[in-house]
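PROTEIN FOLDING TASK:
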Amino acid sequence: MKQNQQNKKSFEVQLTQLSLLTSLPLFFLLIGVMIYANISLYLILLTVLISSLVIVYSHSKLHQKSAYQFRSLSNLLDAMVQGDYSLRARVSDGDEALNELVDSINSLSLRLNKQRIETTESQLLLTTVINHIDVAILALNENNELVLTNPAAKKLLQIPAEQQEFDLIESFSQFSQIAAMNSGNSQVMSLSFANQQGKFNVHLEEYRENGKPQKLVFITDVSTMLRSEERNAWQALVRVISHEINNSLSPITSISQSLRRLLARQEKLENHKDYLVEGLSIISQRSNSLTEFVNSYKQIASLPEPKKQPSSVLELVNKTVALYPDECIEVQNIGDITLVIDAVQFEQVLINLVKNALEAVKNAGEEGKVAISGQVNGKVFSLSLVDDGTGVSNLDNLFVPFYTTKSKGSGIGLVLCRQIIEAHGGKISLTNRLGVSGCIATIEFPL
């Protein structure tokens, strides 16, 4: 600060000296003219005295005014450095250039004050959310040492409110598993804490502070949610199984009772041979249907893990299209895209989707086509199948097991498609086309 003031004073002195130097030539010129004109010595001395006083007074006022302006600006800037944006510099009369500087500094102070208020309000809101959210938040430094926690984290880890240091590795044996996660990843883990255990969704993000990498860990208890989803899944499963089993057992029970009554009459079986054959045939058909139903569930439940390897999407699409040489299928703008996938499973998905699209086109009763195209959006590759068919009447139930709109459909095709795509980290969706008839099936894969 003292050095700055000395620099400012030196500049003020230089400004005064420069102004004085511009006055001296005129002063000496005046004295020379008076001597040349043989003016009285007393008059010359009086002129010298008066001129000197005027020059000294003028330059003293100039020095005071410039020093005052610079001190005002210095005080204002010092206050801004200290975080005080309430001070304002006063605009002086006549100093247009200096006033522009003062206006700029005042505007800067106003802007910084507004930004500080907005930042303070945002920090208060963020602090309130962090303190009341039911998610444990842990901030870790570059050495994976705990530097900040919210109340939910302290409750989960049983950290006393007054305790400043906490050894995560010693108190939480599964911490190393969390610390090894990559930034931006989420994972559902089975974790055990001092007073709580269950399923937790763990999400990790990285940020930098003073140029050093830091970590933010978000831990959310999802046990209740998962149990609720599991209960809903079991209820839906029981409803579907009960419906299918009853559909098979009801006719089997009815027909078997009729056959038993027939045999109880001890009549000649030759007279009822056709009825017996038909009844046994129905029992056999319903038994086979029930067996197929159980095998379908087994197929969904025992989908093998994908054997991923680099595969050309265009090659797989062309192989699928080649299975339907008599159908109108167009392949558009897929490009040279290579995905790390299980080629066999992915081809099974393509066959199912193409088959559904072709059947929809035929059901529409008009000549139509199926178009397959690809598109890259950022780090996501999308493969779309667009048909000119009748569209889908109930989009919400498309991925419900054994739900089908076909008279001879099994209701597991799209379910298997979704399982395969999600096992590869992708997404699949079906939507009706807008304005025209038809459906769009979209598969998204991360690149």
About this structure: DSSP finds eleven helices and twelve strands in the chain. Residues 229-301 form one domain.
